[in-house]
């Protein structure tokens, strides 16, 4: 069993939207902060990874949302680097409220990138060892994206504060650009229940992106479909189920 | 002496920019979170204020920055509602690092607004009493803005996540739109030392704003001048000193 790591977090008002509940991008930020804390605690922080000429890249998050915590709540954020194979590391996250009820569960896929060649590399044993992840041989295939619908699009520019200390656009920003396209009335009257987001290409400072969106037709559920394009290049894609 | 209130805060990676240091807008968010905590602790939280048909509005922040804390640091955020007169409440904030050294000091001006008429009202004694603020008769005049310089401008749209639980654009966003206009190279090679920001008019969801900026000429210091306009209306103005 992979080592679990838990830390408490107080939900700040500025992590919440107009409904007073945690935003989806902030859920990602908070859980990633916890995975970084675990890595630091196991002497595998970004300083160590960078010293090997490597960096972690997140390729997918699959989130199940039971309830988005409110401003002022103290939540427990737990993570474990569950399994890995030659190229992919799978990490789970859970957010629980003060009563121990699960609010959010996330499965994420990480890969290691060579910082010089910008190419994926196989996972060195010394990097993964302290997490006590289970080695698996097969690939865990993430849930597939639903077919794209015709929809609308809105332009965004990568801002200075979108770039984090790893010199990349913070992954949570993609989700920000996706959700922001939906209607104010829709967002204040619907709750996200499942989010499946895949990251395909990194973005650079001052790049212009197009956030395209639409609703998946002819199904009983309300599912929005999102794609982030830089020119002709698909950079990220997501499906979000709402109720 | 006004009651002091302190809470600890761990600086999260997503509160920092590419340099790994806390952003100026996040400094404002963090201190405001602490003033809300104090108000809750004194049974004068937003629920109580709203029940009187009132809401707090911030009109000015004057910040002195010695050092912006880094991701992972635990800081102590202290506040006291120092003084007040008929219409204005003056609140101080201090951020100290783990060694007790002052990183940031802020003096802020708050007014109470009638939520129906959207007009400023005089401060009821029952609202201010528990803070043990000193009543003063004179007006504390904030530092004046330096004369505007000709400069450039960049458009921004008020996004869904710019609106906070108080149904207003979070004040910190104005500072975000201001700082974002400056050059990447400038921002990664300069430190802010003094920030004087004044808020003149609230903004609404989906409004387009123009963030105008320039540098104050013919002085030894490097001071940037910023204005946020919605059409012809000046909504916020700031001077930021850099070194």
Automatic annotation (TrEMBL), chains A, B:
The keyword Lipid metabolism applies. InterPro entries: Acyl-ACP_TE_C, Acyl-ACP_thioesterase_NHD, FATA/B, HotDog_dom_sf. It comes from Vagococcus salmoninarum. Residues 3-131 form the Acyl-ACP thioesterase N-terminal hotdog domain. Residues 150-243 form the Acyl-ACP thioesterase-like C-terminal domain. Belongs to the acyl-ACP thioesterase family. This is Acyl-[acyl-carrier-protein] thioesterase. Keywords: Fatty acid biosynthesis, Fatty acid metabolism, Hydrolase, Lipid biosynthesis, Lipid metabolism, Transit peptide. Pfam families: Acyl-ACP_TE, Acyl-ACP_TE_C. The keyword Disulfide bond does not apply. Gene3D superfamilies: Hotdog Thioesterase. GO terms for molecular function: acyl carrier activity; fatty acyl-[ACP] hydrolase activity. It comes from the Bacteria.
């Amino acid at each position: 069993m992979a080592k679990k790591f838990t830390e408490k977090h107080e939900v700040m008002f500025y992590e919440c939207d107009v409904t007073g509940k945690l935003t989806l991008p902030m859920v990602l930020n908070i859980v990633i902060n916890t995975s970084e804390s675990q890595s630091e605690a196991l002497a595998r922080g970004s300083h160590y990874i960078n010293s090997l000429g490597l960096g972690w890249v997140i390729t997918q998050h699959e989130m199940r949302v039971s309830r988005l915590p409110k401003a002022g709540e103290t939540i427990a954020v737990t993570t474990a680097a569950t399994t890995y194979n030659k190229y992919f590391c799978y990490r789970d996250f859970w957010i629980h409220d003060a009563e121990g009820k699960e609010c959010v569960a996330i499965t994420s896929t990480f890969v290691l990138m060579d910082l010089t060649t910008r190419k994926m590399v196989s996972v060195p044993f010394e990097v993964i060892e302290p997490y006590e992840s289970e080695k698996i041989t097969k690939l865990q295939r993430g849930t597939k994206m639903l077919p794209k619908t015709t929809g609308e699009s809105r332009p965004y520019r990568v801002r200075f504060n979108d770039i984090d200390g790893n010199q990349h656009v913070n992954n949570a920003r993609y989700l920000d650009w996706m959700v922001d396209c939906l209607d104010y009335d829709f967002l204040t009257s619907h709750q996200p229940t499942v989010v499946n987001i895949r990251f395909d290409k990194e973005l650079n400072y001052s790049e212009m992106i197009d956030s395209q969106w639409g609703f998946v037709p002819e199904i009983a559920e309300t599912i929005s479909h999102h794609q982030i394009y830089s020119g002709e290049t698909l950079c990220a894609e997501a499906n979000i189920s709402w109720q």
